[in-house]
Request: fold
Amino acid sequence: YLLSGGSYARWLRSSAALLGPEPRRRATGPAWESPPAMPAWATPRAVSSVRSLIREAAHGEPDPLAPLPVQHDMLSVAQFCGEITRRASRFTTRHGVSYEAPYLDDRVVEAAMSIRLEDRIAAGRYKPVLATAMRDVLPAYAQGRATKGDYSGELYGGLRRHRTDLLELCEESVLVGMGLVDRVALKELLLGLHPDTSPFMAFDSTLACELWLRSLYRNNRSGTTESLPPHREEI
Reply:
């Protein structure tokens, strides 16, 4: 707790002060959560807005989800994954597909939280607790895997096929017009060479926000097409 920088509210305030347009950083020591970061294409206006929201949240002196930072972080991630799962399920059920996430069951989360911290990590083993719990179910090759699956091939392939469409989207971006996204920086992402997919981690959220905003201006219920707001480039 002392190494985490004090209370959860204090951690939020320090995170707001350090917030900037940079790739998401991993925590290098005890902390309440992974430090927040803005993507490289976020404008100063966007960074300032998010910083203000974090400070506003800290002002209310919110209680953490658990007394210890590591426990709070685990529950925070579980809640985030649960929200994603619920939204995915609403979509898949329209097509008769059930989306299940048994690891997010309350009893599974409680069991995971009850395991001692020193038993959760083992040298040379990946997720040792899970592998041990599933040893009578999973085949040996799956129990001994050393990392997660990688889907970078699909991402690079999709970017190659749809790069032209994405660049055209940048030219008429609502987020750019609102002064929240730097058009040049976003184009650099789409046109650049990336040895790994980490720069694209925030792009999904940016694209989702862009499409959502466009839905507010186009194809309303009356069937008319509303014009996009005028562009106001960040200076």
About this structure: The two ends are 42 Å apart (CA to CA). The chain has three domains: 8-59, 70-143, 152-217. Residues 69-92 form the longest helix (24 residues).
